[in-house]
Prior knowledge:
By secondary structure, the chain is α+β, with helices and mostly antiparallel strands. The protein has helices at 13-24, 38-51, 61-70, 76-79, 171-176, 191-200; strands at 98-103, 108-113, 116-124, 135-138, 141-147, 154-162, 165-169, 186-188, 206-210. The chain is elongated and about 65 Å long.
Amino acid sequence: ASRPLMAPGARGAQVRELQARLAQLGLFGRTPTGYYGSVTTTAVRAFQRRQGLPRTGTVQPAAWRALRQQTHRPSRTHLHPPTTRPIGVPDPRCMRGRVICISKRSNTLAWVVDGRVVSTMDVRFGSQYTPTREGTFHITFKSRHHISTLYHTAMPYAMFFSGGQAVHYSADFAAHGYRGASHGCVNVRNKKALAPLFNTVRPGTKVVIYH
C-alpha cells in the first residue's frame, strides 16, 4: 500500500485542514488542533467505514481525495476558531441569507452568510428566571454605547432582537465566564470579535436562537 499522507502523531496545517473537513461531515466534534491524536484517528476510521475503504485510521491518498470532494475548503475561522467550543450544527433556518445563528446547546453565536460560517464567538444566556427567548427574530435597532434603562449596566455593541433582549458585549462575562448569567440578553465576551459583526449587521437582519 502507498504511504499514508497523514497518520497518528502527525502535526501541522494539513492535519488542521483534515480535522476541519471531518467536522463538516459531523465526524469531528472539536476545535481543530493540528495534532493527529486518538480523536482524529477515530474520526478518520468512521469516514473510511462510510466510504467502504480499509479502516486503517491513517489517511491514504484515496481517503483524502474523497474527503476533499465531499467538503468545502475550510475558512480561516474554521481552522482557527476564536471559540473553544465546537460550533453546533447550524439550525436549518440559519442556512439562507445573512443570519446571526445562536445555539444554546453549544453556547456559541455564528455569523452565517449564505450557509457559510464567517465568524463565531462564545455566548451565555439568561438564567431560568429571565430566560433568553428562542425562535426567529430580526434586529430591531442597534446601539453602540447602550446603557440598560432597567438594570443601569453598560451594554456595548447592543443589537436588539426581541423587546429588551439584545446581543451585546458583557464585561462580566469576559471576567467571570459562565458563573454568571444575563437578564435574558445574549452576552458575548470577545469584544474584538463582536465589534466587526456590530458594524456589519443592519436592522432587519435575521436572528435564530435554538436549542
